Amino acid sequence: MRRAGSAALVLFLFLSSALAWPQTALPANQGGPAPEQLTQQSGSTGDSTSLVDAGSESNPQTMLATPATVPVPPGQGTDNFGGKQTKRMFWVVPNFAAVSADTKLPPLSVRDKFALARQDSVDYSSFVWAGLQAAQSMALRSDPELGHGLAGYSRYYWRAFLDQASGAYFTEAIVPALTHEDPRYYTLGRGGFFRRTKYALSQVVLTPTDSGGVSFNYSEIVGNGVEAGLANLYYPTQDRGFRKTAENWATQLEAASLNNIIREFWPDIRHKVFRQK
Fold this sequence. Notes:
Helix content: 40-55%
Shape: globular
Strand content: 5-15%
Oligomer: single chain
Distance between the termini: 31 Å
Radius of gyration: 19 Å
Mean pLDDT: 79
Structural class: mainly alpha
Strand order of the largest sheet: 1-2
């Protein structure tokens, strides 16, 4: 996670030509978006909880946290593929927290939020990504004190894995549970490239709440700051201190911003690049 921003930037630049393709305004599906939900049971009785990936209910309540309050002129709705999100981007990258356009979901319980963080932190791709991050860091000799060879690689690896796991728990579970925020990303799915990009970036600092309002995104801003501070406990001396912590925090926010942009346009990429509905 500490160096995720550069990788996300490369991915975004690679896809930017596809993202910038003009969108064709098509009539909205008269029957509403097709339902696609990953359901579990939740309630005050302690039953097993659920993470809902996408649904077919009415629009979200607020523009800044969700795309619902934007009036949709006739013929200006989402494309016929509905801004539909999938559980994974590029069939590998976890996308469990993304919600399809024009979808309103019930609030997540505390157990739901921790389940979401667990999904993101121990998904099989997380182990692969940590391995790639560790290999990059060792090749660049980012922390020479960690050594080289198999022993050095293992030291890089567990730190990279802990970075991403702690980041997921702080931003998707611990802080959202305390602040009653919704850590999911609600896709806008309509409008031009720059408008949707602006919306995606706004979700780094604004987020929907469990009560349906809009709040400053403490989960992302504070959560990533806590993760960056926690890294002082297990990284070598030259990667500690206020300056390094601030740099790591900024890198996390950069990665979160780019991730939001890619998630916003993932339905378009699926439709226009991979020719999937």
